[in-house]
Design a protein that fits this description.
Number of domains of chain B: 2
CATH topology of the largest domain in chain B: Rossmann fold
Radius of gyration of chain C: 24 Å
Shape of chain B: globular
CATH topology of the domain at 70-252 in chain C: MetI-like fold
CATH architecture of the domain at 70-252 in chain C: Orthogonal Bundle
Chains: A mainly alpha, B alpha+beta, C mainly alpha
Largest sheet of chain C: none
Helix content of chain B: 10-25%
CATH architecture of the largest domain in chain B: 3-Layer(aba) Sandwich
Strand order of the largest sheet of chain B: 6-7-8-3-9-10
Structural class of chain C: mainly alpha
Distance between the termini of chain C: 37 Å
Distance between the termini of chain B: 42 Å
Oligomer: heterotrimer
CATH class of the largest domain in chain B: Alpha Beta
Order of helices and strands of chain C: HHHHHHHHHHH
Shape of chain C: globular
Chain lengths: ~290, ~375, ~280
């Protein structure tokens, strides 16, 4: 019996930091944020419960356009990350030989070790009007005056792809690596060609990796702040920027909280939908990345 | 008599499953005691109760006459060699051996002396600074034993430590373990499912099945005088027939087997009656073989058949014979040399005396194995 | 397809070229950032004016080097402080969580596990504002009812540490749990059997076994904290960590001193990566 009591005691000792962490830093803050988002200011220091902040969001096209734009560009960036990253992952997992494989994989991880700020700064140096690309284009005579390649949507999407690439490649390489070469050989042996083997053997096998990569990349892109703001400039219209504006610049926390909640809802919905679609659990997806 | 370990009426249940059912035994000082049984028979549970990792529901465990039921595992005068040895990978060999001594608060200089002594004793005087993964399987084994023996336990428990070794090394370690036990002169309690390990090493063996001890005895007793069908089937190789008692007197029974053969055998264990479901066991070395259909023999049991296969293995060679009723009998090949050019398909006669055929109440556990 | 299946040389060549271009894309920004830290010009752009170490060591304007730039140095020290706090806290709680989830069964365990994973799927900006909102509610509540002004609940380093801790702990928990799951429980039993107390066993067997994972989690936690931007942005007060300082500078118009800081960060990360690899090899 003694043993039981000491075991229960240890359990509570371990539960305490977990519960404190979860309640004080995750659960209650989000509830509080939700409560704030359904509070309307009716006079100085006077508040009422109501959905006014959400009404304001849907009533002002600029706001919901920004959210829609953010979502669509995030989807676009996710799909492009997959399309660009898949062949590279396949190369690392299936074509490269052991040592080369390790090096290439490490190379993929490299940018992740460096702050996103530094990476984005690098793109700014490359793409701005006085930047390297502009200089190179002039030098080879492609253009005859400096070109500004920053502050447009293409650059923003390119930067988002760059920032999230790692989270696509890691799960893809790990699932592709687990596909035994003999399946591909058998596919060929039984009369398949490159396209059919890819479609019927490789991609179905890699599906879990594809889904978890897409979920993580989408989530990170949607919640990104630095890349769209720095590469897109003032006109970037990224939703996290709107949240920042409401909170810090306009000090309208109620509206900002509502925005935050909408972004969270959209992100959760997509994650949940992705998991449902693929029949995976959050645990297996997150653990992979 | 002075017992190192005594277990009295130990019972352990897990929910509705009874793992150990009223087991009692006592082990004299300095002996090698094995508990032999198939997996799931409760032997590991019994061992873990002795070590203190499980508590019995009822009964008592005494070491050197003192009950240890209320003694925590880290305070019991028993140590255990784990199935996969559980050598600590984060420590080198010397640190592994010193672990228990350090826990007892021994002075470092004394520890060093003891560890070196132990290393020399197991024949690895220079292994102290090696990492665990640099050792071979047999060396690891010895280190695991030394790690326990430096603490001078009253009883050393061994949980199938040879299971993970390959066959050749296992044969070698059997002998070595027996020698180490004699050298340390400590009581070893060894559990295994491998009957040959138990037979080679032990002074006493307990054969365990379904949570109870079927028989406790010396290897010879178990081999030559099994008391239950399970022991007869589990210890050593046997030919087995399943049948019904058709006639009996005080010591012998007549049995008709499933295929209609009549046999006479010695009745062992519980009293049998006419119509009882029984098993008859005959060891391959107890059967005589002669060439031809009409071998003239005086043995009570005689069958004719054809030689179907020879399993040559030096002194252990066997003949497989198919009788006219379609049963397979395995017989030890006589070592006289007369049978060296025996051909498949040869007609042979096999025979055995009534007293080498042992008849027991039927044991259903053995059916799955054959 | 795979090396054992032959492919036309043209296809093979174009595939390899594609992968090559991809890696150029991956590395280019890093190389550019590093290179312009050594350009003897006050703008991090072409033309190349010659090689210099001024952006590291020079002590006068306009080419004030990193090692003489007070606000950057301050940012580095703040980041170090925050990262060390976050690392220690998240390793401690992560280890505790690992034991909780790997060794104990309790009601709502699977629910608690999902909850534990959530911080990874909540965008960092939202994590930041929710903590900002809650701490503000708390601070105002306490001020109104008790008339205490709890400074640490206002935007500042305490909140930055807590905000980063809230999601980095999940990563630490996952890394340490994964190692604890592989632990052979009979090692603990053996140590206990050899006379160790429960505490001895934890100290001499289990924790040493977990050490590589704790170290690895620590390296990741340190880096993620040092580089965190989104959550920090919402919670920062007057003491700005390096990423925030750099961001403010970047908005004002960049000078190669930012490149020099970036080089410093890259070298630091590489160093951390190296010791974590060496540490893992040794184990």
């Amino acid at each position: 019996m003694d043993k039981d009591i000491s075991r229960r005691l240890t359990l509570w000792l371990l539960l305490t930091p977990f519960i404190l962490w979860m309640l004080l830093l995750v659960v209650i803050p989000h509830i509080d944020m939700f409560l704030l988002s359904i509070r309307e200011k009716v006079g100085p220091r006077q508040y009422e419960m109501g959905l006014g902040n959400y009404a304001e969001f849907f009533g002002e096209p600029f706001y919901w356009n920004t959210l829609a734009r953010t979502a669509i560009m995030s989807v676009l960036a996710t799909v492009l990350t997959l399309i660009i990253g898949f062949p590279v992952s396949y190369y690392i997992a299936k074509i490269a030989r052991s040592k080369q494989k390790k090096i290439l994989f490490m190379l993929c991880l490299l940018p992740f070790w460096v702050s996103e700020l530094v990476r984005t700064f690098g793109w700014m140096i490359l793409l701005r009007e006085t930047g390297i690309m502009s200089g190179v284009l002039q030098w080879i005579g492609f253009v005859d005056q400096p070109v500004e390649m920053l502050y447009n949507d293409i650059t923003v999407v390119m930067g988002l792809i760059y920032t999230s690439m790692l989270f696509m490649i890691v799960p893809l390489v790990s699932t592709l690596d687990s596909l035994d070469d003999s399946y591909i050989e058998a596919g060929y042996d039984l009369g398949g060609n490159m396209v059919s083997v890819m479609r019927e053997i490789v991609i179905p096998h890699a599906m879990p990796g594809i889904i978890s990569g897409c979920i993580v990349v989408f989530m990170l892109t949607l919640g990104n702040y630095l890349t769209p703001i720095l590469l897109g400039g003032k006109s970037s219209m990224w939703f996290t920027g709107q949240i920042y504006t409401q909170f810090i610049t306009r000090f309208n926390w109620e509206l900002g909280a509502a925005f935050g909640f909408l972004l969270l809802a959209l992100s959760s919905l997509m994650v949940w939908g992705g998991l449902r679609l693929s029949g995976q659990t959050l645990a297996s997806t997150v653990a992979k990345s | 008599m002075n017992f190192d370990l005594e277990c009295k009426n130990i019972v352990k249940k897990f929910d509705s499953f009874t793992a150990v059912n009223d087991v009692s035994f006592s082990i004299p000082k300095g002996s090698f005691f094995s508990i032999l049984g198939p997996s799931g028979c409760g032997k590991t549970t019994l061992l873990r109760m002795i070590a203190g990792f499980n508590n019995p529901d009822s009964g008592d465990i005494q070491i050197k006459g003192k009950s240890v039921l209320n003694v925590a595992p880290n305070k019991r005068p028993v140590n255990m060699v784990f199935q996969h040895l559980a050598l600590f990978p984060m420590m080198n060999v010397a640190e592994n051996i010193a672990y228990g001594l350090r826990r007892n608060g021994m002075v470092k200089s004394d520890i060093d002396v003891k560890v070196q002594e132990a290393l020399e004793r197991i024949g690895l005087p220079d292994a102290g600074s090696k990492r665990v993964d640099q050792l071979s399987g047999g060396q690891k084994q010895r280190i695991a034993i030394a790690r326990c023996m430096v603490l001078n336990p009253d009883v050393l428990l061994l949980d199938e430590p040879l299971g993970a070794l390959d066959l050749k090394l296992r044969e070698h370690m059997k002998v070595e373990l027996k020698q180490l036990q004699a050298q340390f002169d400590t009581t070893f309690v060894y559990i295994t499912h491998d009957q040959s390990e138990a037979l080679v090493m032990s002074d006493q063996i307990a054969v365990m099945n379904h949570g109870v001890f079927e028989q406790v005895g010396s290897p010879q007793e178990l081999y030559y005088n099994p008391q239950t069908a399970f022991v007869a089937g589990f210890v050593g190789d046997s030919n087995r027939w399943h049948g019904r008692v058709v006639d009996l007197d005080a010591t012998s029974v007549k049995v008709e087997t499933e295929s209609g053969l009549q046999m006479s055998a010695l009745s062992v264990g519980s009293a049998l009656k006419k119509g009882d479901d029984v098993d008859i066991f005959v060891r391959p070395e107890s059967i005589s073989i002669s060439v031809g259909k009409d071998g003239n023999v005086s043995d009570e049991n005689k069958l004719t058949g054809k030689l179907t296969n020879i399993l040559f293995n030096g002194a252990d060679s066997r003949c497989l014979i198919e009788t006219e009723t379609g049963e397979e009998i395995s017989v030890n090949m006589p070592q006289t040399g007369d049978f060296n050019d025996l051909q498949r398909g040869t007609d042979v006669t096999v025979s055995w005396r009534q007293d080498v055929a042992k008849c027991f109440s039927h044991c259903a556990d053995l059916d799955e194995e054959q | 397809m795979i090396p054992s299946i032959s492919q036309s040389p043209f296809l093979r060549f174009s595939y390899a070229t594609y992968v090559g271009i991809f890696f150029v894309y991956l590395i280019a920004p890093l190389i550019v950032v590093a290179a312009f830290a050594f350009n003897d010009s006050i703008f991090p752009s072409l033309p190349w004016e010659g090689f210099t170490f001024d952006w590291f060591f020079n002590d006068t304007e306009p080419k004030l080097g990193v090692f003489h730039d007070r606000s950057i140095l301050k940012g580095i020290s703040v980041s170090f402080f925050v990262a060390i706090c976050v690392t220690l806290l998240s390793i401690a709680v992560g280890t505790s969580n690992a034991f909780l989830f790997e060794r104990y069964d309790f009601r709502f365990k699977s629910f608690a596990y999902i909850l534990m994973l959530l911080p990874l799927v909540i965008p960092g900006v939202i994590l930041g504002i929710s903590i900002l909102v809650f701490s503000n509610t708390l601070a105002n509540g306490i001020e109104d009812s008790l008339n205490w002004d709890l400074e640490f609940l206002r935007p500042g380093l305490v909140l930055v540490v807590l905000g980063q801790f809230s999601f980095i702990t999940t990563i630490a928990t996952l890394v340490i749990s994964a190692r604890l799951r592989k632990f052979d429980i009979s090692l603990e039993e053996a140590a206990y059997n050899l006379g160790g107390s429960k505490f001895d066993v934890l100290r001499t067997i289990t924790l040493p076994y977990l050490r590589p994972a704790m170290f690895g989690a620590g390296v990741v936690a340190f880096l993620m904290s040092f580089e965190n931007f989104n959550t920090t942005l919402m919670l920062v007060g007057s003491d700005a960590p390096l990423t925030i300082t750099m961001y403010d500078r970047l908005k004002e118009g960049s000078t190669p001193v930012l490149n020099a800081v970036s080089v410093f960060l890259m070298v630091g990360s590489a160093f951390l990566a190296l010791i974590s690899i060496l540490f893992q090899k040794e184990k």
